[in-house]
Description:
Layout (H helix, E strand, L loop, with lengths): L1 H10 L1 H67 L3 H22 L5 H30 L3 H8 L2 H79 L14 H69 L4 H15 L4 E6 L6 E4 L3 H9 L5 H8 L3 E6 L2 H4 L9 E10 L5 E10 L5 H40 L3 E6 L4 E4 L1 H7 L11 H8 L6 H13 L6 E8 L3 E13 L2 E11 L1 H37 L4 H33 L6 E5 H15 L3 E7 L5 E5 H17 L5 E10 L2 E7 L34 H11 L3 E7 L3 E9 L21 E5 L3 H13 L3 E5 L2 H10 L4 E4 L9 H10 L8 E5 L4 H7 L3 E4 L4 H16 L1
Amino acid sequence: MLSLKSHYYKRSITTRFASLMIVLLLLVFVGAAFIYWNDRQVENEYREVHDRYKLKQQLTQEAMMHLNGISIRSFAYLAAPGDREYELVVGGGDQLSAVIAQYAKLSLEGREQEFAAESERFRDRYFKGWFPDAAQLAKDNDRAGLRRMFASEEWRTLERLVQETRELHAFYQQKLEETNSLLADSVTKRNIQFIVYVSGIVALSGIVIFMVARDFGMPISRLAANAKQFAAGREQDIRYTNRQDEIGGLARAMEAMMSEIQAKAGELLAQNEELLAQQEELQAQQDELTKALGLMEENEARLRRGNEFVQALANTLDRSELLKSIIRNMVHILKADKGIVIRLTADRDHAAYGLSENAIRRFVEAADDGLLARVKESATAYSLERPAKSAELGYHGESDGLRACDFYLPVLNPDNKVTACIVLTRIGSALTDREEAEASAFAKQISISLDKLELYEKAERQRQMVQTTLDALHEGVQLTDREGTTVLVNARWIEMMGEKADRSWNPTIEQYGAYIQPYVKDPVPFERFIADIVDGQHTEAKSIVYEWKGLVKRHVQMYYEPLYRGGERIGTLFVHRDVTQEREMDRVKSEFVSTVSHELRTPLASVLGFAELLLYKELAPERQKKYVRTIHKEASRLTALINDFLDLQRMESGKQTYDFRQVNVMTLVQEVMEMHQVASSDHRFEWLQHTDETEVYADADKLKQALMNLVGNAVKYSPNGGTVTAVCSEENGQLRIDVTDQGLGIPPEALSGLFSKFYRVDNSDRREIGGTGLGLAIVKEIMDVHKGRALASSIYGQGSTFSLLLPLPARSISRWRLEAAASVERAGEVYLVEDDSDFADLLADELEASGYGVSRFSSEETALKALEQYIPGAIILDLVLERGTDGWRLAERLKQDERLRDLPIIVSSALEEQERARRLGVSEYLVKPYSPGKLVEALKRVMADHSI
């Protein structure tokens, strides 16, 4: 068995080489494993000893620290007793006990065991006996006793233990250094062992390399040298034929091959001569094949050019690019020198190659004449051979006799009518019949491309018209195919969907629902609605309204309509309608009804209640006066509310009239602040003037109304009092009026809606404050008419500032004021024409109390008769008189009468027709209801003007 293995070993080079390598690798692996194992053993032993001494050193250091701490803190406590110092001393004892317990768990020797035991005994004696006794002596201030305690054995034991810990700490440090020294010696020894091991491996590798070179490399090199010598024609004696391995087989095969080659050399020479003869015959056949191959390559090139031409036509849908591609490829394929293609339509679209701009222009202008007319009529190709022109000769002379060939190729539509024509010119030769046939074939492909272009442009125009129509809609439109994929949207849909959406985004219904769902406030119904659409449960038009909670909050009504063609569903049309404004209008309407209900019923309830008390109960004069004052206050509040409603309605409908005059704003500010100062004792009012230019061109009453609203708001929304300040200043050519309070302030998110109708800040600290939310809306309307602006700023919880900006005149204008007669002596007789007897009594009492003589009339006729006898200082006129007569007619008759033309007229009416009154020359116009004092002021102004 052993001899058989040895025989097999000698017969195989691979086996021998593999055996050597395996033995070498095994030696390397075993040696490396042994070295690694030995290193780990030494390292583990060192780490175990090092960690043990390190832990003991650390614990003795902690014990020394706690012993020192006990000593120092005991001194501190006994010198100045205190609870904290006592706790620190006892805590140090507990920490020492914990350290000694941990130390005792380690493997200890005699000295170490004695130290641990002595430390534990000391702790018990010290804290159970010595320290409590010393503490009691310290509390009793027994200094002699304390000195005896410090001279006792326990205190000396503490000092001895401290010294013992230092010695143990030094002992462990020495052991650690000795351990490190042993480790360094061990590492040196292992390095020497590793060097010896590597040297052995290198020597063994050298032996293996020598054996491989001797047994395999040298024999192969010698056989290769024998082969080179035999190839050079010299006979060789082959060695190694007696070996049993692959080299021996190779040597024997080489020897047999050499013998066979020598035997067949003559036969090969005869065969070589025969092959030479056959080679000549094959050369002739190769020439024929080369010629055939040239023809095939030419045909292939023609087919490739044709294919490229067809692809070029199919790859563009732009008319200009298509025509350029046609003429460029036709010139290239037919090897022409230049050419032009022209569409025989009204616009004469064309493209040229190799032609100048002048030549192109001449050809296009003469498109209906010449040979193009013949080609158009005959619908067949036509060739014209002619002498080359001087511009076409180039560097050739005219004596060379060069000729040019113009080839006219018609392009026919499906109705065999000529729609385009291609003209190609070749210098020096004409087109062959095959080239003309090829060109005609290309003309059919060109016709198809032009027809496809026409269809595409028509479809594109229709698509753009549809898209333009859809983009003009205010609703978002989304069209999906039968699979639910979006194929068409409009601009409004893209705007509503947000940043991700564009015309290239084609989501399915599922993808659309997944994208929208995070933005839906209540996603469950929306998710169910989309799921029903996907499952096909909704086959008829359905709709849903959801709230979008993105950056722009809106309410969207989404409905869809299935599209059918021939009974088959081909798609679905979705419409997304923004109903935010409608929802907002519904909300505003509800708030309006609620506000009006509250604001009207509250003062009416007070008026009715107190009036009932006055009618049916006997009350003291003071209580009667109090109730009447309350009725007057609530009636004024109700009047202001109705006036706000009516003013805003007239302003928005454009029916409000304005009397623009030169107005001193500072005077109006002062009047408004003084009026509120009388009514509100909890607030302090200040008005400041920081500019001399305070006159503007404005309606004094409307501007005063705006200031009243702003100051009233400042008072209302500062319920705890404070200062209300009005400041007039100049800013960028505008007069700025700032009204500032120290009240509740406005949240930042509410600033944008302050000047909207019925808007009120929804906050708990404002719910008890009444109001309709119309005051600031009226201010904004007034400022818009005056070409000004209303602004607001606030610090929540600290107060607000409302600003009015009015344009100043271009240049300084002298101040204009009204000088009213203030004394009763300048008062005179007035006529009061009023059909309402109760209101007439009220006005007459107020006028007479102001020193005016009053004559009352209820109809036009009685007033005219009185005017014939006496002309008063002024006439107060209602527009609706007794028996339905018109007060305008009386005013017109007064203005037409030369004797009465200058008589001042004050209109007192519930109708608002100030513009008509201005045209007629009415002096003042008061809208009912108004306070009687306002009539007295107006009367003073007009009578003062009349006297001047």
